What we know:
The complex is a heterodimer of chains A (159) and B (441). Chain A contains three helices and seven strands; from the N terminus they run H-E-E-H-E-E-E-E-H-E. Chain A has helices at residues 3-13, 37-45, 107-118, and strands spanning 18-22, 29-32, 53-61, 69-77, 82-90, 96-98, 121-123. The longest helix of chain A is centred in the C-terminal third of the chain and has 12 residues, at 107-118. The radius of gyration of chain A is 17 Å and the shape is elongated. Chain A starts with a helix and ends in a 36-residue tail after the last strand. In chain B, the strands form three sheets. In chain B, strands 1-2-3 form a three-stranded antiparallel sheet. In chain B, helix 4 runs antiparallel to helix 5 (99-127), helix 5 packs antiparallel against helix 12 (260-284) and helix 5 (99-127) packs antiparallel against helix 19 (422-432). The longest helix of chain B has 29 residues, at 99-127. Classes of the chains: A alpha/beta (159), B mainly alpha (441). At the A-B interface, strand 3 and helix 3 of A face helix 2, helix 9, strand 6, strand 7 and strand 8 of B.
Amino acid sequence: MDEKGILDEIRRRFPKDVVATSSELCEETAVVRREALPGLMAFLKEKPWDFAMLLDLTCADYPERPERFEMVYHLFSLASNKRLRIKVPLSEREVVVASLASLWKNADWLEREVFDMFGIRFEGHPNLQRLFMNEAFEGHPLRKDYPLRKRQPMIPLRK
Amino acid sequence: MPSRLQTQARPDTLLVNMGPSHPAMHGAVRIMLELDGERILNSEVEVGYLHRGFEKTCENRTYFNLLIYTDRLNYVSPLINNVGYVMTVEKLLGLQVPERARVIRILMSELSRVSDHLTCLAAMAMECGAFTVFLYKMKAREFLWDVIEATTGARMTTSYIRVGGVRADLHPDYEAAVKKGVGETRKVLKDVHGLLDKNKIFLNRTRDVGTMSPENAVNFGWTGPALRSTGIAYDVRKAHPYLGYDRLDFEIPTGERGDNFDRYMVRMREMDQSLRIIEQCLACLPKAKPQVLAEGMEPAEAVRAARTRKPDRPIKLSPNLEGAEKAVADGILSGDRRYVLPPKEDAYTSIEGLISHFKYFMKGHGIRPPKGEAYFSVEGGNGELGYYIVSDGTDRPYRLHLRAPCLPLLASLEELIRGRYVADVIPTFGSMNIILGELDR
């Protein structure tokens, strides 16, 4: 069961939902449609693939693309010592994706971070609050249209 | 807006804040506790007090300039952060580093790992009342940091590992200093084993406190010593060997119960292994050419002389370039001028060197990895330290994300302390080695 196998398997299992696959720099990547995410992740987590660990979960913002946001998931399987990257494009009109907090416990905080930084909403998340910024913070700082030097001090800065 | 805990708390319970300014909260993290007497019914962890926009900043800096921000992530083992970032960029570039630089990177990683574990356990022991252990460990760490300081010129903000190699060669006296550091650390470890391993007070506060099952740890995404304390021998150095760790001889210590004591013990035994690696590095480090420390000419004089012909005498460099002379540059830096600075002597005396130097720093030039994305991880002090970089072909990363090993650890704290006493928060939090600089980014 090599990683090439996993990409073929994903394509075979979810023929309509896989947008693209690639394996550049020996990193297996599958781009899938949003609707397929919960089913795909649940499938990958179970044996025989056994991607028991959600290594990382983040997002990237591409304002010029029709589907502006791209969720990036890194999975890791202890049994086969393989990593896998799953990407999910999201359009700006509907920045909602299913929460994975019920599958992996660390998804709870990671999704809160992405919500905080990119404003992606996670359906079914138990407590979708900002993680790093304060509650009164406006906007989502890691979006490309958020200015680098914009300040939102909690108390007025001294002149 | 009231927090989740405030809205859900029972009316007859007491809500207590631990932190954000609390001596045992390692920086700034706030733990809200719902207490029934001394017992914790529920808790909520709040982070972000040290958030400084690391990722946003990095996306607006060039690949060379953002290196300094990686020093400030895990500030107890900054060199490992450097290694992780630099190797991710090298993966995008497909760049190889010279043999000597590779061994120096391992040496520096392991010195940092030992100092990271020493700091963590020192703080943990101190918070449990064992102040002697704290002092002993800090003493050992000083010897290791002396080695780091002599070579990199800084104790914490090192920025020493560079794309293509390392910034400077090891200090001429490094061998004696490393041997002294290793010897002193071994002595301290022996003393600490004697002080803590069978200490009734320490055992009462750590044995079977903060217990984590292996399945749950994996589900939480734990890595590093915390995961290994539950019995799962996953170490990035063995699972995905980088820098030639697979050619070194070391073991991965694991625990059995996944409690605070096991996390302490795994870290202690890991330090032994790291010291072994350091000794192997010393043995296999390729011998460098002896440094020429002859009387050199002033840079201005060299620049003037180079107008007519190439100067044959060595050039006296500024002291902060010590170790980066042309004579040693081949051993520690790749020769690929697209991604690596030329030696300073070349920049002074040859047009090629000057242009390379200029282009390296010129806006829109410098290090420009091809379009693509890469995830690369190294074994940090707390676990898998991963960088995810998306390059759009320019001199700045389009997206840079850090997989902080602390985040899953702290995310599980609420579960670990539920139903325990207030005093159990301290060793549980301490044994995880939460570094807020890395978690909050």
